[in-house]
Amino acid sequence: MKKTILTLLFVILIISVNLFAQKNNNIEKVYLLDKNDFNPYIEFTSSDIKDYFNPQNSSKYPSINLFDGLFKTCWIAGNSKTDVNFSLYMKVPKKIDLNTLIINIFSGYGKSKSLYKANARPKKIRISLYRGLQQEGLSTEVSNLYMIKFFTSRLISLKDSFGVQSFPLHIQKGQLKTLKSVIMKIEIVDVYAGSKYDDICISEIFFNDRFVTKYPSKYNEIEDVSIKDDNILLLDYKHKKKIIILKDETSVFTMVDYIEKSNWAILHYVPNDTLESMGRVEEQYALIDLKNKKIVNKELKICTGNSPFLIEKSKNGKIFLITDTGEYEIELK
Asked: Label partner for 22 (CA 20 to 30 A): which of 146, 155, 218, 230?
């Protein structure tokens, strides 16, 4: 009896949603995969996902590769010869102020420059934004149903370059009223042809609540970071110690924040010309990518619109950056 009642209620909900969609012809339905072990970043779906319960088995190069924080994996989004392009829907993280929304894309296969050129990659993409309303009663164990309504779109031209490209979307304040959720749709409009293969590849997509850099194929575990002689930054690997990763005689290094077993550090420093002046001395902060042994403040600013301040480790082991504005945390990958 209880099962019959639940079935009846589910049918009524389906009919109600269908009637609602019929009355509003510009209302669409989309199921977004919930965040899980295979997709720890955002809710999303794409037309290459055939099995919602096992999305990792849908393709050899599935769309979940877009959110794994690795440039060496990719999503095959279609074929440049047959013009079969798949659509991708993503939920924009709620903590991001839509007035400052940035989308970051590594277009092409990021495993190597040779594979990048060998495969096709997007030349132009259309980004469409929708107002989204989650339908709680019609969600499944692995996905959430959203009723979405289009409100703006933008055509973006991508450079044919090996690396991350960032695009501020500049959404007007008047468009933000009464938005519960924002769903983004990406469609490939034009491509750069591959020299060998017809597969259209995208390696990574992330918003300005995340920062992803290249992960070297030969990477040794980092054990410690330290300062020597006030202007040298040293790195200890598991089997190799005191490697110089940064030397700057124009500044005085005052402190380095490093979380054990992580790939990131914050260097506190004061430029020499500031010390020599009679004015107030203020520390500056540099985000150090220990994997690639370099300061990445400029890249961080482009991808997120923010500057570094502090880093911290969450209970589940993720590393987050606290920005200078303190508006929200940025996950470091």
From this structure: 155
Mean pLDDT of the chain: 84
Give the neighbor-by-neighbor strand order of the sheet with 199-207: 84-85, 75-79, 199-207, 102-107, 164-168
Distance CA 95, CA 89 (A): 18
Give the number of other Cβ atoms within 10 Å of residue 314's Cβ. Answer: 10
pLDDT for res 164: 97
Pick the CATH number of 2-208 from 3.40.50.1000, 2.60.120.260, 3.50.50.60, 3.40.50.2300: 2.60.120.260
Q: Where are the domains of the chain?
A: 2-208, 222-332
User: Tens digit of pLDDT for each residue in 101-130?
Assistant: 999 999 999 999 999 999 999 999 999 999
Q: What is the DSSP string of 49-104?
A: ---TT-GGGS-SS-GGGGGSS-TT--EEEEETTTTEE--EEEEPPTTS-GGG-EEE
Residue 5 per-residue DSSP state: H
CA 178 to chain centre: 25
